[in-house]
Amino acid sequence: MSSTTHGKRLLSKPELHPSFPIIWQDSIVYERARVGRVFNNRRPSRFPLAVVEATNEGHIAEAVRLANQLGCRVSVRSGGHSWAAWSVRDDAILIDLGKFFHFHLNNEIGVLEASPSMTGRMVNRLLDPHGRMFPGGHCPDVALGGFLLQGGMGWNCKNWGFACQRVLAIDVVTATGERLRCDEEQNSDLFWAARGAGPGFPAIVTRFHLQTLPRSTHMRSSAYIYEKKDYRQAFQWILDISPTYDDSTEIVCVGNHIPGRTGGHITILLVTMKNDEDEARAALQPAHDSAPPGHVVSWFCKETSLPQEYDDQHAANPNGHRYTVDNGYVDNDADVVSVLEKAFTTLPSTKSFTLWYAMNPASRFTVADGRLKDMALSMQSDHYFATYCVWEDEANDDSCQGWVRDIFAEVEPHLVGSYLGDADFQVRNTKFWGDEQGKKLMKIRRTWDPKGVVAGYLDQDDKSGAHGLPNER
After folding, report:
1. Per the similarity annotation, which family is this (predicted)?
2. pLDDT tens digits, one per residue of 336-362
3. Distance from C-alpha of 210 to C-alpha of 205, rounded to nearest angstrom
4. Which element (helix H / strand E) includes 266?
5. Cα–Cα distance, 380 to 416 (Å, whole number)
6. Beta carbons of 263 and 346 less than 8 angstroms apart
7. Is residue 185 classed exposed, middle or buried when 0-12, 13-18 and 19+ CB atoms within 10 A define those classes?
8. CB 266 within 8 A of CB 231
9. CA distances (Å), 44 to each of 31, 82, 86, 314, in order?
10. Contact 54, 99 (CB under 8 A)
11. What CATH number has the domain spanning 103-214?
């Protein structure tokens, strides 16, 4: 039996009786299953053949085998936070992991087993009673799956490095439906690829084995907020002090609008993670002593926590809104303040924001010095920059998307590449890996999934298939 809707062919065949929860296109709950967990309210006009709401690894393996039987692709959704909604692909079986949860902590060695759908907030809430933490995504509803596959720009990435370096092993379902363990000793090429491949990973991760960290007992923050007329002096100050700043302190500069105040602002935020009040105060004191005059709002060494920081991030990234996002690593030799001035000072809506994350010293870690793992992740610089254009009315789509395109048309000559997590391959081509790492990754993709069963990088017209991305600016 077949019919059509949305201009797509339907398959709801009586001879197919899968033993796992599958929602075909002709189901009354199809639209909810298709995009109900997509964070970006700018919904994609793409229609999967069906959605499998998996609750265990068996469902995932069976769904892959069904896709092979039908000659279609599978796509995967962990948390639905990808701005370009990579999981929603035409004529694919979408495997949604939103009902598949696993959490187990080995207290003796601090190793956590977690399913890809576990969010940073979930994981750290469960780790907290054990005095442990994991540097997941800053936004509370970012799930581990996409976050870690893209590299994991998590808490204190500036000093601790990318979270994917704390992945000890993964369990996967391959493109043929086989279940495997991957680590440094077995299926090591897949393990290498998983740490930085992003949505082009040629298998489906069902479980991460993660090295957790001791949780700090004194999390404190300082902030210095300037009017945008003081952009240059504020930004230059934080650029100058960040490379040698305390190694437990995260630093970010944000161009935003402050509730209750008119005009744009520049917010400098420092968050430190210590085990003693005096240590926290000592870590934040140098910034307090050197901050340029003119800040219109400020605080020093204010008590905070991961739950509070998650709430603040949620407020800055509200649900039910339309988003266009892009990012880049600015060349270390660029005049960063000048290059990013327009992005910070011409925001197109009051909810939009631009950020710069300090990445040095972790951006200088190398495989040769033993501080960086040999893995697919291989693109970074001292300066991570991203724009988050946020609005509500569909009528503003063209102007908001146009603003982001214009910003990156000007900034592109000063970028060395981009981070997968805040990218849209349909809009802009650039580099995401080092030259050799990119070639190796695409070869691994073709080895493990030569038919392109696992939907990979959603480029323009979704045509990259098993070949993958060119990794060229």
Report:
1. Belongs to the oxygen-dependent FAD-linked oxidoreductase family.
2. 999 999 999 999 999 999 999 999 999
3. 13
4. strand 264-274
5. 8
6. no
7. exposed
8. yes
9. 12, 12, 9, 23
10. yes
11. 3.30.465.10
pLDDT in tens, 15-37: 566 788 999 999 999 999 999 99
Amino acid in the structure at residue 412: E
Task: Please report, for residues 112, 203, 320, the alpha-carbon distance to residue 60 in angstroms, rounded to integers and kept in the order given.
Answer: 21, 11, 29
The residues spanned by each domain of the chain are 4-96, 103-214, 218-422
Residue 440: both structure tokens together: 């190796």
For 136, how many CA atoms within 13 A lie in the half-sphere containing its CB?
Answer: 32
In terms of C-beta density within 10 A (0-12 exposed, 13-18 middle, 19 or more buried), how is residue 244 classed? exposed
Q: Which of 166, 229, 157 is nearest to 380 (CA)?
A: 157
- In degrees, to the nearest 5, what angle opens at C-alpha 222 toward C-alphas 236 and 157? 70
Question: Hey, which bits of 313-462 come out as E strands?
Answer: 322-330, 353-358, 383-391, 415-417
Please indicate whether the domains covering 103-214 and 218-422 agree at the CATH topology level.
Answer: no
Would you say how long the chain is, in residues?
473
Q: Using an 8 Å Cβ cutoff, are 420 and 328 in contact?
A: no
CATH topology of domain 4-96: 3.30.465
Q: For residue 345, give the nearest of 430, 230, 185, 426 by alpha carbon.
A: 230
Distances (CA, A) of 350 to 243, 355, 432: 31, 15, 30
Closest CA to 308 of 261, 357, 269, 256: 269
DSSP result, 292-330:
PTT-SEEEEEEEE-HHHHHHHHHHHS-TT-EEEEEEEEE
Q: Please tell me the number of Cα atoms within 13 Å of 353 on its side-chain side.
A: 19
Give the 3-state DSSP-derived string for 145-182, with helices as H, strands as E and coil as C: HHHHHCCCCCCCHHHHCCHHHHEEEEEEEECCCCEEEE
Q: List, for residues 47-102, the tens digit of each pLDDT value.
A: 999 999 999 999 999 999 999 999 999 999 999 999 999 999 999 999 999 999 99
Cis peptide upstream of residue 413 (ω within 30 degrees of 0): no
Global pTM value: 0.95
Fold for 218-422, please state it.
Answer: Vanillyl-alcohol Oxidase; Chain A, domain 3 (3.40.462)
Quick one: how far is CA 363 from the chain centroid?
17
Helix (H, G, I), strand (E, B) or coil at 89: coil
Question: Taking the mean position of all CA atoms in its chain, how far away is CA 420?
Answer: 7
Mean pLDDT of 321-332: 98
